[in-house]
């Protein structure tokens, strides 16, 4: 079982974060909302810009690093439920200079953003989970040398409202990444820009996590789905089956029903055994105490996956008021200490936390 050292980096209540070298000194820094925290100890924080607080939330549900303007410095891609646009913050390259925010393009009420290089260009495209709009993605416009120009093109690939939940999975096993939504999946065509993509309405996941994960859970060669109830109890996986007539059907399995508000999740080899584990946790006060289980304890967890069985391990658990952490809306995993294990940066309304992964043999003081 893995051991972790927990550190609370800040009381700031932003729900998204990322890790990248902000100031170009070769050391990874942590970004979360209005601040970045200088590595390697993440004690000194610097203001990025002012971010509005709206009804108990912040207008920032993503802090993804991307060099948008081609100047060699990582900028930040962001969006929120209220902004009705994808935006980017320009890294000025000067520590005490505030970052300017610009529009990348319009979108609807967005739960968060996810990123995938859908066309193999080497730069990930931006996929908003805009719940009341058809699925789309934004492509960074680059110059002849392949550098970003600060401009984006929006490509609509869906024809119906996306719903709550979105992820990437090669559903039909043809080597092309498809887009999974609340009520089905969009099949990527030969040309990803030739929309709309064909929509297969094959299930209804309810208000699902972002992301919905594609993974062969039971080892039968078919891509299954892992998702959480973002605003209710439950963590589940959907088994893909092919009937005798060749038709695809889905069988729902329960991973657990004890936890609620599983909003963000990742598949990663967190224990170094060469196999992927599921890492997730509760988003604290996802609907400002309006969700089932909102007043239950929060926590971070990882699950070992073995032929359809999920073995749960607790990273942190308890009451937010007493210092426990959940997963926020966009947590980040990266080896920050250089010991070969993935650490976890966990933002949320309970504060910003760092879980240093000490491996399975070390002691733990947190």
Automatic annotation (TrEMBL):
<dbReference type="InterPro" id="IPR028994">
    <property type="entry name" value="Integrin_alpha_N"/>
</dbReference>
<dbReference type="Pfam" id="PF13517">
    <property type="entry name" value="FG-GAP_3"/>
</dbReference>
<keyword id="KW-0732">Signal</keyword>
<protein>
    <recommendedName>
        <fullName>VCBS repeat-containing protein</fullName>
    </recommendedName>
</protein>
<dbReference type="InterPro" id="IPR013517">
    <property type="entry name" value="FG-GAP"/>
</dbReference>
């Amino acid at each position: 079982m893995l051991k972790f050292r927990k550190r609370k980096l800040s009381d700031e209540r932003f729900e998204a974060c990322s890790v990248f070298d902000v100031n170009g000194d070769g050391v990874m820094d942590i970004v979360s909302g209005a601040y970045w925290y200088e590595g390697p100890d993440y004690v000194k924080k610097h203001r990025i810009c002012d971010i509005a607080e709206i009804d108990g939330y912040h207008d920032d549900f993503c802090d993804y690093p991307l060099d948008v303007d081609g100047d060699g410095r990582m900028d930040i891609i962001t969006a929120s439920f209220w902004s009705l646009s994808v935006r980017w913050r320009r890294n000025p390259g000067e520590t005490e200079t505030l970052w300017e925010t610009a529009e990348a393009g319009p979108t609807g009420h967005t739960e968060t953003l996810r990123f995938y290089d859908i066309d193999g260009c080497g730069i990930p495209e931006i996929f908003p989970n805009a719940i009341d709009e058809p699925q789309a993605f934004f492509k960074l416009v680059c110059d002849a040398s392949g550098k970003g120009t600060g401009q984006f093109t929006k490509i609509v690939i869906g024809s119906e409202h996306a719903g709550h939940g979105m992820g990437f999975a090669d559903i039909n096993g043809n080597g092309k990444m498809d887009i999974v939504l609340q009520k089905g999946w969009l099949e990527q065509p030969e040309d990803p820009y030739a929309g709309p993509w064909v929509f297969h309405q094959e299930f209804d996941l309810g208000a699902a996590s972002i992301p919905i994960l594609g993974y062969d859970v039971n080892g039968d060669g078919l891509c299954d789905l892992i998702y959480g109830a973002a605003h209710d109890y439950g963590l589940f996986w959907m088994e893909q089956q092919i009937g005798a007539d060749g038709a695809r059907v889905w069988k729902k399995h329960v991973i657990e029903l004890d936890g609620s508000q599983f909003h963000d999740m990742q598949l990663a080899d967190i224990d170094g055994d060469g196999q992927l584990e599921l890492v997730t946790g509760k988003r604290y006060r996802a609907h400002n105490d309006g969700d089932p289980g909102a007043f239950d304890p929060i926590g971070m967890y990882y699950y070992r996956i073995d032929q359809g069985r999920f073995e749960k391990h607790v990273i942190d658990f308890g009451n937010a008021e007493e210092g426990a952490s959940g997963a926020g809306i966009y947590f980040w995993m990266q080896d920050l200490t250089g010991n070969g294990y993935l650490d976890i940066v966990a933002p949320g309304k309970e504060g910003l936390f760092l879980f240093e992964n000490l491996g399975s043999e070390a002691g733990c003081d947190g």
